[in-house]
Each structure stands twice: as C-alpha cells, then as structure tokens.
Amino acid sequence: MSGARSARDRLDRITSILARATRFYLLAMATVLVGGAIAVGFAFTRARVYKSETLILYREAIRSSALGEDVGGDPARKLGMRLREMVLSRTRLSQIIDEFHLYTKIVNDRGHVDAVDEMRTHIAFRVRDGDTFGLSFESDDPKLVQAVTARLAEALIAENSRHRVEQATVTKEFLDTEGERIEADLKQKETELAQFLSKHPEFARESSTAAATVGSAILAAKKAMPVGVVKDPTLLALERESMRIDVRLGLSDRRKAAPPTESKVIAEAEAELQAAQKDLSDKLAHFTDQHPDVLVARARMKLAETRLRRWTALESAEARPVDVDARERTTLQEALAKVTAEIAAHRLTKRKVGGAGVVQPSGNASRIVAIETDWTRLSREVVEARTRHQLLEDKLFKASMAQSSASSEHNAQIRIVDPAYLPTHPAKPGRIMMTAVGVIASIGLALALALGCALLDDRIYDRVDIERLEVMPLLAVVPRAKKQKRGLQRRTEPVPKQAGDV
Amino acid sequence: MSERRRRDRRPSTKDEPAVPVPTPGPPPVSEEAARGAADDLRGDLRGDLKRDPLLDRTALTMVPPTQKMTLQDAQPVIDSLERIGESDDPESGPEMWVERHRMPSRLDRRLVLLREPDSWRSACFRVLRHRLAEHGDPRVIAVTSAERGEGKTTCAVNLALALGECGRARVLLVEANLRAPSLAALFGFTPPACFAVQLERHRRVPLDPWSVVEAYSPSLHVLAVRAEGNPRPLLDGPAFACTIAALRRGGYEYIVLDTPPVLGSADVNLAADSADGVLFTTWARRSSTRALRRAVEQLAPAKILGVTLLDV
Ligand SMILES: Nc1ncnc2c1ncn2[C@@H]1O[C@H](COP(=O)(O)OP(=O)(O)OP(=O)(O)O)[C@@H](O)[C@H]1O
Ligand SMILES: [Mg+2]
Questions:
Q1: Is B168 in the pocket of ligand 1 (CB under 6 A)?
Q2: Crossing angle, helix A208-223 and helix A363-407, to 10 degrees?
Q3: Mean pLDDT throughout A392-412?
Q4: ipTM above 0.90?
C-alpha cells in the first residue's frame, strides 16, 4: 500500500480528482445556468450607454524650448496629467452639470459633490501617442453625450489658455520688478566707478575687466606674501604707480592715434544687430506681421539693439580722452619724481635692513595700495552687476515672448482635431458580448467550483482513495452489481439441496 | 462424526410470547417416532434428507417440527438438536437447536454468493476469504464500518457464505447489531429465538442450548435478532465474550460478527474485544475517509485486518 509512488499512481490521483470533479456536474450545470441567466438579465436590462469622443491635439506654435521653458521629465505624460486635472476640475464639471441638468437625481439627493464624482466616472481622458489626447463622455442620451463632450473640450481649451496667460503674466511682472532693482543697482555701481575715475584719472587706461583681474592678483599676492619673498609689495605698488604716471605723460602724444582696444564686443553686438535685422526682413517677406516667427525675429533685433547701445555708452564713458594740459603735466612730473625718489629710498632701506627684513611702507605707498584696492573692488562690482543685468534681460525677453505667444490667437495650444460626434450605436460592450462574457465567466466559475468540491470531497470513490489513506490494507474491492432488466435472477449455482425442495 | 443425541431440552422461548410454543416442550420421542412425525407432516422430506449426502454427513437428529414453523413460515422447516464438533464430551461446547430453512424464491440482493455465484462480485468475496487467511487466518471476524449503510451486512453475509462454501468450514454468522438488526430480514426468516434474548438468558442458564438457523447452506448457521419488539438493548460485553468463546468451543471454525457502525456507540469496541480482528467495509461514493480514520482511531488498539471497498 505504502512505498514508492509510481508515475502511474500520480496519474491515478489526478484522474481520480478529475473523475470526482465530474461527479459535481449537476452543481456545475446549475452554476452555468444561473450565471448565464444573470448575464443575460444584466445585459438586457442595463440601460444602453452611448459614448462620444473628441480628439484634441496639443501643439505649440512656438516651441517652449525656444522660449527657454524647461521641458523636463516625460513631457507627454506630464502634460496629459495636467490636462486631465483640468478636464476633471470640480468647478468646471459643476458648471457643466448645471448647464446640462445632468444627474439631477444625484444632485437633488446628495448634492453637487457626488454628482461631480459620478460624472468623473463617465469621463475618459486618454493620452494617445504623440501630443494627441482623446476626451470622451458616456451617458444614455446620444445628443446629450455629444453636446457634453464638445462642451468639455471647449472648457479644457479655455482653461488651458487662461492658465498659460496667467502664468506668463505673473512671470513677466516678477522679472520686471527684479530688472528694475538690478538696473538701479548697476547704475549706482557705474556712478561710483565714474566718480573714482574722475578722482584718479591714471586708472582710466586700465580696462575695468583687466583691473578686476589685476586687482585680485594684487590682493592675492598681498594675502599670500610669505616672509622673505623677493618682491616687496610696497615696491611693486610704487613701481606700478610710476608706470601709470609714465603712461599718462606719454599718452598725450599717442592718444589720438591709438584705436580703441575694447571695441571687439561692440563689433560683435553690431554684427548681431545686423543679423537680426536681416532675419526680421526675411521673416517679414514670408509671414504676416503677427506670425510668431516674426515676433521672435523682432524681439531678437530689439535685444541686439539695446545691447549695442549699452556697450557703446560704456565704451565712450571709459575711453573718454584724458585731457592732459601743461599745468597738470608739471604736477604729474612732480608726482613721478616723488614716486621715483620713494622707490629709491625704499630700495635703500631695504638693502640696509637685509633681504629678510620687512620694510614699513611709507604713507604714500600705503595710500597707493588702498586706492588700487578700491579700484579693483569697484570694477569687479560693476562687472558683476552687468552680468546679472544681462542674464535678467535674457529672461525678461523670454518671458515677454511667452506672454505674447500665450495671448496671441495664433498660438492656441490645444486644437480640436476631431470634434465630438453623435453616437449612432450604443457603446461597447454590446449585449451579446456581455452575455458571452458572463456565460464564459460562469463556466469558469462552475469548473472552479467542481474542482474545489472535488478537492474538498473526502468520500471514497476508488481504491486509490483508500490506498492513499494508508491506515489499513485494502483486502477486496467488490464491483457494483449490474443493473438487471429482469426483476429476478434465479440462482445458477447448485446450492446444497434442502429438505422439502420439490 | 458426532454421536447422535437427543435432548429433552429445547432452547426456551418463554420470553417470546409472540411465538406459540407447545408447553411443556416436545415430549421425548424416539428417533423412529420423530421421523414418523416428520413424514406425517411433509411427506417426502425424510426421503430428501436421506438422499442428501451433506445432511448424511452432518448426521442431524430430527425432531418433530413445531406448529409455528409449519404454519407461519412459508418454507419447510426442520428442527434439529445437535452438537457441533467432533467431541462427545457434553461440556466441550453448548448444544445447538438448529432450524433449517429452504432457500426462498426471492433472494435479497445482498446475498451475492447465492444470487450470482459465478459472478466477479462473488469471486471478490472468495478473494477476501483468501486474503484473510493470509492475514493470520482470524477465526472470529468482526465486520464493521465507520457509519451506517456502508455494507457491513453485505460483507459479513457474503464472507460467511464464502468461508463455508462447499462445506469447507462450519461458520456462524452472529448479529451483533442489536439496535438495527437486518440478518433475519435479509435471509427471509423469523428466528425461533432472538439472539438478544438468548444472550440475556444465558447469563442465568449458561448451559442452555443455543437456537440457531441454518441458512440455506448446512455449513452456515445464523444467530439473528428479531426485529419486532426489540427493546434495543446495549450489547452486554462480558456475556457476549463468553458466548463467542463457548460457540468457538462448540465447533464453529469461523464466527463472523455483523456489528453496528463504529461511530456513535461503543458496541463495536466491545465486539472487537471478542474478535480476532476487525474488518472494515466502505461503500464507494458513500463512505468518507475522515469517518474511516476516526473509526480506526476509536477502535485502536484492536487488530484491524483491513478494509473492503464495495460497490465500486
Ligand atoms: N446491489 C446493491 N445495489 C444497490 N444498493 C445496494 C446493493 N446491495 C445493498 N445495497 C444497499 O446498500 C446499503 C448498505 O447495505 P448494508 O445493509 O450492507 O449496510 P450496513 O452497513 O449493514 O447498514 P446498517 O448500518 O444499516 O446495518 C443498503 O441500504 C442496501 O439497500
Ligand atoms: Mg447491517
């Protein structure tokens, strides 16, 4: 009975379970019948549902990347989610429910909140591939379905453009105020620099950008100067001062001939302006005045213009010709002589003290260093302010672009590709389909039920069931009696004859 | 061959008022007289008996039939008092009143070995007989099942028939299911004395002869319970054990007990104590493995011979 199980035993076990399952055929048939009846009843009593769909396309006439908006993540998905939120927005659906008198029973019984929830279950917003989206609504009246779908799409478009305009305006306003602040800051810095230059005209020749680097180099050298460094900073400062005075003295002669050295930026700006002008004229030749491309080209030209204007203004301020008259010349020469004398004196004291000694700078030398430091700071601040200003200007430009594109009719982002149609057939699944699904499901349920009952059924059907128990040996299996058509079967075996058997 | 004897004592039927018994008991008659009386009532019966080699072998002592037997039962009946077994010692076993019955024209469908002796079903019971012989050849076999209607009676009757087939052994079939007896109805006779009543009486009169019915085959005797007016007594364990021991001594080679279902009473536990082994029966599509397991647990540590599966 026990012992190794052969494959045949396992097969027996499986067939016994299957055979057992077939014994529950009545239950299974009843399940199928009941399930089928329910399916048919459900399919034929359920109100027929109509569905209308509109296909909308999300399209940007001016790519947002061109406008500098960051397009991060999965744009289609993100966009889809945003649009879905807009479609399902409570206030909007509430309005539509009132407008079309939808779900009046729910509105009366449970209020608008529940009605909106109910409506949401009947709205489908599908993200198709690319930038198209399907918006559908279902209900039991085909005309109503069409109207509501169209209205939903309309509402979505309105909401989206309102949202965009709002966003662009807010950004623009913010950048405007910020720009004003930075502009004022820049102006102040430039005034300070101009005042400094008028006080110390000898710095005028050093370009503000170069000054920023030179100045920082001086500062760094001062900070990091170890004891016994060969070059003495005081000496260096004096030497530079003498050099600057030298330059001013010599400048008066060479001044007129020298071409402006910093006009490279200006030249670039001019080239950009020309390119922008050409672009604009090109675009104007092809498109109308209101076309987004024209708008872009125009904006570009405007930017180039302002940039050029600014640079020329700066250049003229910096490269103001230094007027050196005779009287000033003598003062300069005196100052030069003084500085030279100071350098000599410093060298002398230095030699006396020895290479390693630190020589206390004279009053004049300290003053020069302080002025240099001031110069450096002012120039750096101006450069920084300018950079910031420029960055903001770029942003401002993009924001105004976005604003104008948002408010422009031409750049409508959402377009209706397929308007809502009037449904002629009820939506799927149809009655036959529903019935079939119901019947198939109930067949599956019936099979599962029969199999479950077979597994739970612990009755003995076959020798396998006893052998599997392994509690005692199976001694005999007596088959079922054959059904007999004749009511009686006479004994056929010669049983011991009895007394009186006549 | 046992010596022919005749006793003045018949199994008392005092407790069974339904059965009209001539009082006092039948007068002591000679063998001649007995035969004469029998001949009077049933002409050629004696001749039949004489002619029957099996009956000659068992050498029955004939006694005059009672009125009840001839009038109430449709079949011819012969009463005999005999001692079974080889020994002459009167104390070696109880005396038996044997009532012989003719096979009726309608047989219960559970009597497989009589209805269809050539069939595969009968063969299965013969196989069971052999398998039991292999499993230690138990002499007292309690046939039981976990629940009602699982073929205990069917199996017990056919096993008893198979064991005694062709006179291979003397077999006694005992109805141990006192609450729901079915043997009498199955064989179609009314036992002259109810087994339950005899059991009760033998507590007081241990040497009283037992009244058994010879059911269609000289090698099969039946101790049946009368269905009508049965007070549904509990099985008297010690008395039952003594009875089985005495009957064994009396010359029966096999004793088959038809018991009640195991679950729900302790009767089978008592019967199993007197038996050499317990044979379970299961009815296909009806018996549950859970009940079977619980029944086996309930009978432990009785010796379980095995299980038969009926009606597959
Ligand atoms: N050949 C047959 N075909 C169909 N049913 C049968 C057959 N033989 C017996 N039965 C039925 O099977 C059942 C079991 O019979 P049986 O009397 O042997 O069971 P049991 O275990 O002795 O029952 P109980 O517990 O009542 O004594 C009975 O109801 C009987 O009618
Ligand atoms: Mg029974």
A1: no
A2: 130
A3: 78
A4: no
State the distance from the centre of ligand 2 to the C-alpha of B139, rounded, in angstroms.
20
**How many angstroms separate the CA of residue B287 from the nearest CA in chain A?**
5
Question: What domains, with CATH codes, occur in chain A?
Answer: 1-47+443-471 (no CATH), 50-168 (3.30.1890), 183-410 (no CATH)
- Please state, as a whole number, how many other Cβ atoms lie within 10 Å of the Cβ of residue B90: 12
Structure token pair of residue B249: 């001594």
pLDDT in tens, B270-301: 999 999 999 999 999 899 999 999 999 999 89
Q: Which of A176, A7, A159, A182 is nearest to A91 (CA)?
A: A159
Q: pLDDT tens digit string along B37-66?
A: 444 434 333 333 333 333 333 333 333 333
> Any idea what the Cα angle at residue A17 is, between residues A16 and A18, rounded to 5°?
90
Task: Please report the sign of the dihedral spanned by the C-alpha atoms of residue B194, residue B197, residue B199, residue B201.
Answer: negative
CA of B217 to the centre of ligand 2 (A): 21
> What gap in Å lies between CA A192 and CA A184, rounded to an integer?
12
Looking at the DSSP assignment, which residues form a beta bridge with residue B215?
A: B101
Architecture of the domain spanning B26-66+78-310 = 3-Layer(aba) Sandwich (3.40)
Nearest to A291 by CA among A411, A207, A468, A373: A411
- What would the mean pLDDT of A374-395 be, rounded to a whole number? 89
Which residue's C-alpha comes closest to atom 25 of ligand 1?
A: B148
Rg (chain B; Cα; Å): 19
Q: Which residues of A touch B304 (CB under 8 A)?
A: 471-472
Identify which of B54, B55, B311 has the shortest CB distance to residue A480: B311
The two tokens of residue B125 are 């019971």
Q: Is B148 in the pocket of ligand 1 (CB under 6 A)?
A: yes
Residue B258 alpha carbon to ligand 2 centre in Å: 7
Nearest to A147 by CA among A201, A213, A101: A101
Domain boundaries, chain B: 26-66+78-310
When pLDDT is averaged across residues A108-125 and rounded to a whole number, the result is: 92
Of A496, A462, A484, give the one whose Cα is nearest residue A23: A462
* Average pLDDT of chain B to the nearest whole number: 76
pLDDT band (50, 70, 90) for residue B35 = very low
Region for A135 from its dihedrals, namely left if φ exceeds 0, alpha if ψ lies in -120 to 50, beta otherwise: beta
Distance CA A348, CA A356 (A): 14
